[in-house]
Structure formats: structure tokens, C-alpha cells
Amino acid sequence: MSEVQFFNVHKDFSGMEVLKGINFTVESGQVACLIGPSGSGKSTLLRCVNHLETTSSGTILVGGRMIGYEVHGDRLIQAHQKDINKRRSRIGMVFQSFNLFGHMTALENVMMGPVKLLKVPKARAEAEARELLAKVGLADRTGHYPAQLSGGQQQRVAIARALSMKPDLMLFDEPTSALDPELVGEVLDVMKALARDGMTMIVVTHEMGFAREVADVVAFMDGGVIVEAGDPNEIISRPQHERTKAFLSKVL
Amino acid sequence: MTVSELPITAEARHDFADLASRPVLKRKRPGQLIAMVLVGLFALMGAYVIVTNPGFGWPTVAKYLFDIRILNGLLTTIELTTIAMVLGLVIGLVIAVMRMSDNALLRGVAGAYIWFFRGTPLMVQMLFWGFAAVLFPTIGIGIPGGPMLVEWNTNDVLPLFVAGILGLGLNEGAYMAEIVRAGLMGVPAGQSEASHAMGFSRMETLRHVVIPQAMKIILPPVGNETISMLKTTSLVIVIGVGDLLYNAQQIYARNLQQIPLLIVASLWYILLTTILSLVQARVEKRYSRGNTIQARKA
Q1: DSSP per residue, B96-153
Q2: Whole-model pTM?
Q3: What is the interface pTM, i.e. ipTM, of the complex?
Q4: Which of residues 161-220 of A touch B (CB under 8 A)?
Q5: Of the four listed, A74, B147, B162, B206, which is most buried by Cβ atoms within 10 Å?
């Protein structure tokens, strides 16, 4: 099970409150899109899921279990780093700036996790990595270094790298925001295919077309709160709140 | 004024297509010629002095260039350079990682180390290690204020060679720490973040992701430091370690052929520096994997 539940999640950066009580649930197999203006807290919320950011209060459960904290008597205690790493290895993350390892070829990037973390034999890891790269349409780019690939290709390698760990959940942090417009489509296509395969996904995005087409649920965030959430067509076509309407009128 | 009214210049009467088909003449640059003549003259003067001044004692140079004492000293110099650099690199890496740690105590210790070893002259540190036996006549393992379990005579376990290594290596570590730190900081934070998100620990991230990419930033200054260290090892003469310069000194102390023997030492230093420069270029090439310039060429 890989449902993600947010219970009253708060986060402040040295006094600046960026998340002000988030309550939200993403069911297993669902695609959730987080939309909203920059600075609304959507990326921070996403980064709390795999504990790249700590939460100030509240709870996030992935598959029914917290990441980064354990119950200790009647209080929470910081989890052991080893446990955090183990949980993270089952959650794929794709970044706005790709963050492929620059000193490794596309193939090496995709093989690295299985070989070093899961101790998969090299030959098998390589076969699987080639398969994944073929799946994202890059079978002919395995030997290329990130600097030799276009943004769209790099992001597809990054998705293959995240998938190499066989995650239960995928987090996408504005995966197409750094791409030239003509390269956005190829990345979204890979993500759509992933959604069709039943992957649980949380996607921070400005691509309203994608949200409408693929998402099971859309949450509009502003000022650290979820202003409204629900069916993508409802939210995007018939927003109820003024702030949602104002935002959508600018991006659509 | 319209085009037809433009005055017809000399060039305009030529057939440009025809002109462009012939090779372009090189314009003469008299300044370059003068510079060449001047440099040539100075070179000749220098060569004349070097050949004719008997003080250079070229026959003496030739006699001692492969003298066993010089070669032994050379070996010691190479050993000192190698071990001190390895020590410096290890210390530098540890101190740099400590300096970037979450733990304020570790950061403080690293800062203090760099502050101390950069803050005092290397010559003084060298002398200190040479005289360490005065400060600690014996060293051992035991309970502070209580009995000693194991104990050694400092002069036995800390021969001058080791004292020299410590002097050079500990000092180098402080400078290397800053070089390594610059390299680690030069790797974008997103690289570590992606690695952490995959489930790699801090140490695994350093080893597999950050350090390999920091290498191409770190290597040029490390090459520089190694070349510098080769010559800095000559400071061990203050504690009497028989390196290249020390042994050359020992010889000219008897035969009073100072200049020829200093030339002998210099020739070896310059040869080693040349070799190190070549090695540096090769190593840097190896660690430039996946960088943009190389990628564009491919």
C-alpha cells in the first residue's frame, strides 16, 4: 500500500510559516497534482513526504507509516537515519533541475541505485536499466553523459533512475518547468504512461492540461494552505474560491 | 546621397571576386622582429655567462649529479613528498568534511585545526616536531594522571624522518582542507539531494556522487600543492633529515663547491617538477568525465 496521508502538517523556516495545516489524502494508485502560485508551499509539502524537509508539526503517513519519525511512548522521536534512507529508497523523486549525476552516463545513472543500494548484480542491473531507458524512449542514449543530452532527455533519464528502485510512490517537483516548451510533451508522455501503469504519483506542476487529463485529484495551494481540492475538472473548470479563480485565470 | 552618387574609389574599380580568390598577403610586423632579436640577444648573453663563468663549475655538476648521496637524498625527497601529500590529502578530506558537518563541535575542531596550522610558520612547526622529544620525552597509552600501560621513548618512535613527515603533512592538511572544501561546495546541492532522495546515506553520497565530481575542481590545485610540496620538503634541513638539499649541503660543506651542488639539486628538483606537471595533466584528463567541454567535443 502506498497511500499518502497528510494530517495537519505545519512547516516553518525560521519563523516563516510556509505550511499552515495541510490535510490531504492521496489513495494508492492515484495521481495527485499540486497546483498554485510560487511560494505557496507545494514544493515544500512534496519534499516533506520523503523527509528532504522536516515538518514542524503534524504527520505524514506513506503506506500508513511515518517517515523520519517514530512513536516513542506518548511522543515522537526522530527516526534512525538508516530507516529514513530505507524508506526513501522506495519513493522515487524527480526534480525540476533533473539532478542527474554529471560524472555518470545515462546508463550508469540508472544502474547506480540498484547496484549500490539494492546490491543487484551488475549484469542484471544493466539489463534492467537498459529496459527502463528503452521505456522512456532513450534506448539509443545509454552511453551519453547528462551534458550531452537535452533537458527533456535528461528528465526522462531522471525518471528512469527513480523507477530503477522500483518505488511504490513517485514524487515530481515541477518536472517540466526547466524545459523548453517543445520538450515538455516528451516528459509528460512518460509520466502519463506511468500513471496508466497504476503508479501512485504526487506531481507539483503548472501543466494544467496534464492535471486535467491525468490527475485523479487536484489540490490548489496558496499561502501554505490547500484552498480547495477535488476532481481536476471541477477545480480547473469551475473553481469555487476567488484565489483559485485568480490563479487559474493567469495560467490558463 | 544615393548609391549612384558615391564617389568611385580605387578599390571599387577592382574585380573583387578575382582578388578574393588569391591568397591574402601577411602584413609585416616589425615590432615582433625587434622583440625576437632582443630575446635572442639576452638568451645568448645568458648562455655565454653560464658557459664561460667557471664559478658554475659544470664539471663538478656532472661529477655529483649521480653521486650516491645525491641520489639517496633524492629518494628521501620523493618519499617525503609522497607521504606528506597522502597524509595531507587524507587530513584535508577529513577536516573538510568535518568543517561542513551539521555538528557544531566538529566544525569548530576543523576550524581550529586550519586556524592553527595556517597561522604558524611551517618552519616553526617543523622545528617543533624535531624537538618534540623535549616536550614529551616519552609517549604511550595510559590513564591521564594514572599509570601508563605502554610507553615508548619519543626519540625511538619519532625519528627525524617521521618528524619531517608530520611537519609537512599536518600543515599541508590544513591547506588541503580548504581546497577539498571548495571542491565539495562546487558540486551543486541538487546532486546530493537527488542522492539522498534515492536513499543514499551522507557518506555514500559523498563517496559515489560528490567526491567524484569535486575531483575535477580539486585536482588542479592539488597538482599545484604537490609541485609546491616537492620543494617545500627542503625545509626538513632544519631538523637534519637527509633529503636532496641537505645531502647537497653536506657535500659542499666539505668541498666548498656551493654553486655546482646547488645546481645539482636544482636540476633534480626541476626534473621532478616537470614529471609531476605531466602526470597532473594526465590525471586531470581522467577525472574530467562528463564535463561539458569534453561533451561538446564528442
Answers
A1: HHHHTSS-HHHHHHHHHHHHHHHHS-HHHHHHHHHTHHHH-SEEEEE-TTS-EEEEEE
A2: 0.81
A3: 0.94
A4: 161-162, 165
A5: B206
